[in-house]
Amino acid sequence: MARITLENLAHSYLKAPQGDADYALKEMTHVWEDGGAYALLGASGCGKTTLLNIISGLVRPSRGRVLFGDRDVTAEETAARNIAQVFQFPVVYDTMTVRDNLAFPLRNRGMDAAYVARRVEEVARMIGMEEALGRRAKGLTADAKQKISLGRGMVREDVNAILFDEPLTVIDPHMKWELRTQLKRLHREFGHTMIYVTHDQTEALTFADKVVVMHEGRVVQLGAPEALFERPEHTFVGYFIGSPGMNFFDAKVEGAIAHLGGAAMPLGAAYPQLSGRVQVGVRPEHVTLSSGEGLPVTIRRVEDVGRHRIVRAETPAGLLDIVLPEGEPLGAGATHARFAPDRVNVYRDDWRVAPAETHRGEAA
Amino acid sequence: MEKTQNNRAWFLVLPVLVIVAFSAVIPLMTVVNYSLNDTFGNNQFFWAGLEWFEEMVTSSRLHDALARQALFSAIILAIEIPLGVFIALNMPKKGVWASVCLVLMALPLLIPFNVVGTIWQIFGRVDIGLLGHTLEAAGIDYNYTNDPIDAWITVIVMDVWHWTSLVALLAYAGLQSIPQAYYQAARIDQASRWSVFRYIELPKMRGVLLIAVLLRFMDSFMIYTEPFVVTGGGPGNSTTFLSIDLVKMAVGQFDLGPAAAFSLMYFLVILLVSWVFYTVMTNLDREDSK
Asked: Which of A156, A327, B136, B233 is 20–30 Å from B114 (CA)?
């Protein structure tokens, strides 16, 4: 087990990368704490898998270093790094039995037979395949095969980290929930560093202590699920996390007032003079409907999604989504929208700006 | 539900029936006819019953040819399959060299059979052939025209040269279809090179190797042109395989009755072996997926 440090890491799949655009992974420096459960979240093609493969050693980075603890492993082969990785699609050794599949990584490392047998039993119980141990892996369903892959990833106790590359894509929904809970419990029990790549926000938010959101080859925010929800550092995070995503409006910010669509919306704090493209972002959960106060709205559609309703509305500043809590009436007088002032974030050129009072300067 | 009955639809099958009749059934039936009759020409036939079959089944000439044939097929399979797999494993996976290799590998397959025979016939000659002359000069006693062992070696090397590419290309296609994730997982599991071959590559290649074995068996069991051009079945009868013997009997000696009986049995043997082979392999597959 080890802390993972990425130092000035960048990667391009081209031989002679020219500009920023040629890099699949832009330069980054991050420290991933030992024993943390991290989720790498982002849309397809944002560099999640590249980053994962660099950590596991399947891809050699163009620039920068990877450290496990204090050891520089950048040039080390995958096998020497002592990590486990589970892939998106099940990888099983078809001709072997389930038992041999699970035992394979241990036997290759010359472990004692009694230990191997005990460990295989434990892992089989964990993934719920004790009965299938003697069967050949070939004829099993994709679900079962992926469980074997997960099992093979977890069978070694001394790994530096376990990496998951969208491992639950092929799994049945109800099984997904169960396996994710299992992984979580496993993490609590053994304290392995786990890195979990996904494009599914629910998966990321339920699994991880820390979520790393990636966008166009950059890590745009690394934080607890709550921080991603309340204070997205980048408009992409606001838009990607939450359902529906954050509302963004071009605005003119003067002190503690944002002017948008002809209305003056109060902000929770005063902001310095801003240049560039300025936007305000507010979660649909933090917008309330009122009569005659705030941003004028025209309601276009109301979607009932069970626990709450989503109101899709038009405003002079653009489209606005509002989450209406269960039981809250939607009257004919709902002509305006109000934002909860201290839940409104201000963005300049897509990055969040910290309020002036906190003296933190502008976040970049 | 009421269905429209229209028996005229059967006419649509007619073209296929005609083609199959002329391409397979009628020619085969003429052979059957020959095998059951004796003829002295002029389309005069005398009923012979199963006499020719009895004669052929007990003929030591046919037994010897069959034994030679079986030995030949066994040897070339034992060489070509492992060699083809070995070559496929060592071929570059992508880039310019992969294309170059593929083209080079495909070349022997494009050469007509009798040209292959002629190439090796000349290549192996002691007086003017590069191979034969070099061996002679190196002091090795080699002459495929009067030494049966040398003749066998020449014919086998020729077949390996001609057909190993096919096995290699099939195996290569099988290897190319293995997703990268398998190799990556194997690296993470610290699998040895042998384990990767044994547990990933070989199982994934099984389907194409099955086809390779089947094709090479059938083809080698029916081989005629190349050894005929190189050795003419000699020296003596040492490289007279079934097809060569059959042609000698039918065209050389004009023994149409025995030759027809011979060819029917020959056909049935190939059919039988291929069927057994196919059934065994598919059964293994089915057992696997249980």
From this structure: B136
